[in-house]
Every structure is written in structure tokens, then in C-alpha cells.
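Task: sequence design from structure.
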């Protein structure tokens, strides 16, 4: 039999029967249309068994009811997430996972959509996710308890005013004195007069085959970029086999003389942490430090790492 493609182009057969795409629009009405077409086109000499059709209808009705029940259950599950903090198995172009507090649910033919405000390019935007995208649901704390915790957090931060703290920031870890504190919708913050950057760096080995590492620890406060160099010479007659020099980046290292390094002494307010065992071979290490200028910075209470006097 030749098939006229124009039927499909117009979405119906030559008898006017609507063509339904696979997986779409097949409901009880569709079943009755198929049943009617079968009855109209049956062989009169071999009439169809009506009980078979009744059984098919009952089976179809049962499946339809189960589908409706599943949709209702799915919507209830989605609606139960409103007000809760969820994480989605969905990521932005930076590979950062989406998540937030569920605002509302939108029912669609393909299932419920979860409407949530998420961060996109530094801004809060409304985004819709499928229920199947939910990867985790987190406990949403009681608002009254949250308020109490916020007040306790605020008073704790007030007690730090005038004290020296170390705080974590997206630019690194810094040391400074707390000037004041304030509340935001995201949490409690401290305004800090930052006086130096905390350094905890493994120095890079230069021209050596030994496996000994040394570290530079402390707070760098200089307004000049420098290279700190350390040398080990096992043949030296000195009691201390290590020496160092600080070279401004705009100066030739050969112009600076090496100085003996006494363990636990400070270099520019920092200590060089030496290995427990001396290297077997001569070795050089080096680390670069950027210039630092005192400035005012704001830190969340959760980012205060250490507090002193």
C-alpha cells in the first residue's frame, strides 16, 4: 500500500484520524477512538469478542489511574520541599553546583518544576528545576533559633573589637585589628584594619636533588615585593649551615650578601621552618612575596580563624 506523506504533514490520516506522536496524547479518549475504529473495520464473518475489549479498557483504566496517582504523589513530594534548602544535580558553566531555598512549585504536563533563587554570575536569579534534579535536602533551621544564634554571634563579634584577629578572605588569610561589627542578611561581619598577610608557604627548591622541604611562616607587612632565598651548605664551618637573603624584586640578587640563619629567628617578621634532618646535598630554596598595603577589610564571623589580645 502506498503511503501519502501529505497525511503526516497535516497531522492526520486520509480518514481524518489525528496522528499522535509516540508517548504523547495517548489517553482514554484515544483508546475509545481505537476501539471504534476496530469495531467499524472488523470482519463481519469474524466479529471481535466484546469481552476482550472490555478487558482491555479495564486494563487501560487501571494504568491511567496509577499514572494519575504517581503524578499526584510526585507533586506532593515536590510541594513538601517548599521553604527547604536543597541542592540540585545541576551545575553552572564554572562547575559550581546549584542550590537554594525552594520558593514554589509549578505543575506542568511533564511533571512538577521546583522554583528556586540561585546565584548566577554573582546575581540572584530565579531558576526552575525538575524534581529528579534534587540531589540533597537540608534541614531548614527554626527561624527563632536562627535569630538567637545570630544575636549570640553578634555579641561574640562585638567582644573582639580592639583585638587582633586572623581572618580568611578570598584573597588569602590576613591579620588585623577589629574596628567594629554589623549584621547582614547573610550573617555577622567584622570591619578589620588589616596590617599584614599571613604567609604559610613551602619554598620552591632550586638546583637540588634532595627531597627536604622548608617553609616560610608568619605575617608579611612590607610594602615592597621581595624574594626570600635560603641556602644550605653542609661544608660550611659555621655551626648553622643555613643562610638567607631578602632580595627586592627590582634588585639583582648577586648584590645582596648571604646572612647566617639562626633557627627560630625571624626574617621580616616570619620564621623559616627547617627540616628535622639536614639535606645530604647543597640546596637552595626560594619564595616570592607580593607587596602589602594596609587596608580595611570585612570578614564574616565564620571566617575568623584566630583571635588574640
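Answer:
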Amino acid at each position: 500500500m502506498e503511503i501519502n506523506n501529505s497525511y503526516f504533514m497535516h497531522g492526520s490520516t486520509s480518514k481524518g484520524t489525528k496522528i499522535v506522536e509516540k508517548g504523547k496524547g495517548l489517553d482514554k479518549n484515544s483508546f475509545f477512538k481505537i476501539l471504534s475504529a476496530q469495531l467499524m473495520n472488523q470482519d463481519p464473518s469474524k466479529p471481535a469478542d466484546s469481552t476482550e475489549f472490555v478487558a482491555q479498557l479495564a486494563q487501560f483504566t487501571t494504568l491511567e489511574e496509577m499514572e494519575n496517582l504517581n503524578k499526584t504523589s510526585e507533586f506532593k513530594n515536590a510541594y513538601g520541599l517548599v521553604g527547604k534548602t536543597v541542592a540540585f544535580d545541576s551545575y553552572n558553566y564554572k562547575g559550581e553546583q546549584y542550590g537554594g531555598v525552594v520558593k514554589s512549585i509549578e505543575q506542568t504536563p511533564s511533571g512538577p518544576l521546583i522554583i528556586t533563587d540561585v546565584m548566577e554570575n554573582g546575581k540572584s536569579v530565579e531558576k526552575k528545576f525538575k524534581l529528579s534534579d534534587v540531589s540533597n535536602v537540608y534541614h531548614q533551621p527554626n527561624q527563632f533559633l536562627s535569630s538567637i544564634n545570630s544575636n549570640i554571634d553578634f555579641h561574640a563579634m562585638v567582644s573582639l573589637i580592639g583585638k587582633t584577629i586572623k581572618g580568611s578572605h578570598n584573597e588569602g588569610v590576613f591579620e588585623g585589628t577589629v574596628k567594629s561589627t554589623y549584621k547582614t542578611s547573610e550573617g555577622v561581619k567584622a570591619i578589620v584594619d588589616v596590617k599584614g598577610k599571613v604567609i604559610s608557604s613551602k619554598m620552591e627548591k632550586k638546583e637540588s636533588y634532595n627531597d627536604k622541604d622548608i617553609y616560610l611562616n608568619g605575617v608579611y607587612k612590607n610594602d615592597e615585593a621581595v624574594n626570600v632565598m635560603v641556602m644550605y651548605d653542609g661544608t660550611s664551618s659555621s655551626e648553622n649551615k643555613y643562610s638567607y637573603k631578602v632580595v627586592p624584586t627590582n634588585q639583582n640578587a648577586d648584590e645582596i650578601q648571604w646572612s647566617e640563619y639562626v633557627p627560630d629567628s625571624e626574617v621580616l617578621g616570619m620564621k623559616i621552618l627547617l627540616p628535622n634532618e639536614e639535606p645530604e646535598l647543597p640546596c637552595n630554596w626560594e619564595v616570592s612575596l607580593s607587596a602589602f598595603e594596609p587596608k580595611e577589610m570585612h570578614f564574616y564571623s565564620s571566617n575568623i580563624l584566630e583571635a588574640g589580645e
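Residues 1-10 have pLDDT under 50 and may be disordered.
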